[in-house]
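Forum: Protein Structure Q&A
Topic: Joint prediction for protein chains with partners

I've read a bunch of threads here and the consensus seems to be that you should model interacting components together rather than docking separate models afterwards. I'd like to see that in practice. Below is the full input, 951 residues plus whatever partners are listed. Could one of the regulars post the assembled result?
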Amino acid sequence: MIQHPAILALTIASLITGGMLCYASWFGTRILERWNLNSGSEEQLELERRTYLISVILTYSLLFQILSLFLYIFTADNLHDQFTGAMCAAGSLAVNSYGYPVLMLKILNCLLAGVWLIINHVDTKGYDYPLIRQKYRLLGILSPLILLEGIFQFVYFFNLKADIITSCCGTLFSSSKRSIAGEMAALPIEPMQWLFFGSMALTALFGTYFLLAKKGGVLFSIISTTTFIIATISLVAFISLYIYELPTHHCPFCILQREYNYIGYILYALLLTGGTSSIGVGVLSPFSHNKSLVRSLPGIQRRLTIIAMSSYLFFVILTVWYMLSTSFRID
Amino acid sequence: MIKLAEVTKTFNSGRDNQFTAVNDISLTIRKGELTILKGPSGSGKTTLMALIGCMARPTSGRILLHDISSSFFTPTADEPTLDITSLPERFLTEIRRRSFGFIFQQFNLIKGISALENITLPAYPTGEHHTVFQKRGRELMEFLSISRHADSPVDWLSGGELQRVAIARALINSPAIIIADEPTAHLDSALSHDFMDSIARLKAEGKTILIASHDPLVYDSTVADCVLTMRDGSIIEETARP
Amino acid sequence: MPQNLNRYRHILDFALASLLRRRARNFSLFALYTLILFLLASLIFFVQAIKREASLTLVNAPELVVQRMIAGRHDLIPLEYAKKISEIRGVTSVVPRLWGYYYDPVFGANYTLLVPDSDQPQPGSIIIGAGVARNQRIKQGDLLTLQTASKTALLLTVQGIYPTDSEILSSDLMVMATDDFRTMFNFPLDKATDLAVTVANQREQATVAAKIAETFPDTRPILRGEMLRTYQNLFDWRGGMLVVMFGVALLAFVIFAWDKASGLSADERQEIGILKSIGWETSDVLLLKFWEGMVISLTAFLCGVLLAYCHVFFFSALLFQQALKGWSVLYPSFTLVPTVDLYQLTILFFLTVLPYTAATIIPSWLAATVPPDTAMRS
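Posted by a regular:
Agreed with the consensus. Here's the joint model:
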């Protein structure tokens, strides 16, 4: 294991987040069992007070989760020179088989926590806690995922061993050399470009339709979420090539570095915002006829749609700007 | 108009110290009237006022509000009243903030801050711009003749001035209903008369007022429209003045 | 939107006023918070700066050094190995290096004696590092005596002293001519201390190293990259040890913060009861508590980081120097170059503000859920 304050920081963060969510889930199960809004009993009042605590916990958890996602990538990047052959975070994460799963789980948990907060926000707008059951069931899915992520993260860091000289008599070259795949397998470029721009156009189309006709929320959500996935893959497949101006550099993490003006943060923030809002629109659709939500839900869905579409729009603008402003061309 | 139907409030139910503060009360507070709750301490007046004033939830029974405005409910022909019995706290608080103003026995002003700040505190979470509610606060201080103390810390004010700050605070969000709990308990006769005069003025403006008091100066006042006598959590007598 | 902004703003105003009203009570928390931040930040900045210095010192080190080993110990390498190694494909040059350690019993210090590749000093002259000059209290033009391996005295004139800027590299250095060096140690003519090998293509380094190890099994090739990594790891490890020790202090702080936040004084509880009764909702009071925590955290963070910056970069981290520098008599005196980046600040944030915030969640919630009718009852 490599001793590094960042690893300690990440471990502390996942312990805290995991702990808080377990606590929240435990209350969630109690709420699911005993909830009775029409009762004025003290138990019910206590449960209602607890829901505030759980909202606060989840809000902080999402914040910590997003920060820890970036700290994790940063740390992996920072450690890359400890491993022969690793050029950046991509290399460090590939050192053992837990590196990438942790990253995937972190992203998934950010999305789920974001969706939970959207549902929570809508729930507070209804005067009879209309979405309480759905909320706590989702919490029941999110908590084990966060625990899993914490465990995997710990195992990943625990199994990291730097390629260093460990004794004054030792040497590294009697043993066989190990190399780490620095090249990411990437999908063919031209079809991805079509897919990318096509899905963005479809998202815009269905989004506008939903805003105007007030129908087709679920359809928009499905298309928009698929666009999120396509956009992420496209980032690796061809967008990064224009940013790096190299035909073989597909790394998704180097764009977070200073030499590329930290553009990676903006791009990933736009993607995450777009993805979360898109999922939110779809998840809320089944409840648009709830009596207590009839007033507020459509407005919230519209706002989420606009957020999703604007995020994607900025993403496309940045992509096109990079594609046009460099003299680098893919043939 | 506020209607209570068979409302009961029990504390610590199921335990040794179970205590029923309000026992199966049904009553109607009519709009524009001054209602007095009379009774010894421990009779449940405070709990009843907390229930009427959207501060607490009844253990059983229903509370209905008529003609009360809120952002999430518009009265219609089919549904003219709002049942607040099971409303979540944030909605209850919203109604309370908009429609109710409270004057407490101990005034309950926050020490260390100025009179104007105390008066405008209830408006902080409403999202209004501070120039708007500060203007209203100063107007209220004008109305109650305490303008010169606007920026003095409340620690420096006398009993009568504190009472008027408390009244101003209750009025900052222009509520339709005022609730006062033993307002004259710490005041001498002269200040008590002043207080009842202020109440008369507010009633003349169309506000509904509910006062809990065991001070004869209050419950024998000619301004009162209805006097409810309470004992042991129930209403034992209702006197309406024609 | 403007509604929400107004709400945040007003509640923030109240939070600030309320913190100032309770200055004395909040001060101990603030002081402790700042102290913890100061210690951790100093540590992180110092380790980072030293790592950077270490990597800079190695920039000019040879890419590949070949040493001869006998019985697991470093031995002198025959010059004929140099010839054979230069014939390996990919090797552009092989330079034999002459250097060694000299222990001076008078001053109790170890010096590194070195013959440079180029610009050797005149025979009879020596260029010394600033640390040596300080240690022996000599200056340019003075005479310096060294005891050779044959127990004779070698007198050398100090031709120059390395400037203090380069101290971290040159502090204990004595640079002399080949003949003087060989006289000092009775050094055999057909040997060198080790060989500095340059490889044309960086990617070939490992291959060449493997070839050398294969051809001369009694040698060990050392890559610069490995040295760099080893140093980085060493400082990380030392830093990590201290961080873990500070972890105990951190835990104590978090418990203290929890306790402070939970121990709602009677008048604080009453105040919140009043706020709830006049129309503040639980989420408004939660927002109030959030602002209070944020103001304390951010102010402590700023103060702690600034103090740490001064401590490390103006006072050379006086508090930690002993623990982190190692055991020696000769210390280079150098001022560390300020390097602070967002990464370190984020790590610091995670180690301090995060646990503090988490510890105050439940106490804040407990405070915020004071029932609105308590004000009526008191």
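The first helix of chain A runs from residue 5 to 34.
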